[in-house]
Write a structure and sequence with these properties.
By secondary structure, the chain is an alpha/beta fold. It is 50% helix and 14% strand. Helix 2 runs parallel beside helix 3.
Length: 100
């Protein structure tokens, strides 16, 4: 996964730089089997974010995933949430002010 993500990050780096970090991100998804494991997701998020400045960490829309989203966003790491499981997950994520 690192090879693919870092390659894509390099390709998008000019966009990321020219838009001052507003665009040009590539997503790196944490292992979905860790959906409830805050420590595991946090460790993976930190590892992925260290690969390049324009990697957004893709987290599951679980309570643990939202907690990790808040934590990494406070550290300046971009995050996105997978919300394709239920309407309540979409609502909670959309109404969250944790990362904005």
């Amino acid at each position: 996964m690192r090879i693919v993500v870092v390659h894509a990050a390099r390709l998008l780096d000019p966009i990321h730089r020219s838009t001052h970090g507003q665009q040009g991100y590539v997503c790196a998804q944490v292992n979905p089997s860790l959906a409830g494991d805050r420590e595991g997701m946090y460790a993976i998020a930190k590892r992925f974010a260290a690969w390049a400045p324009n990697i957004a960490i893709k987290l599951p829309a679980t309570a643990a995933g939202l907690d990790i989203m808040e934590k990494i966003c406070q550290e300046g790491i971009a995050a996105t949430i997978t919300v394709s499981f239920s309407v309540p997950q979409v609502y909670v994520t959309a109404s969250s002010k944790r990362c904005f």
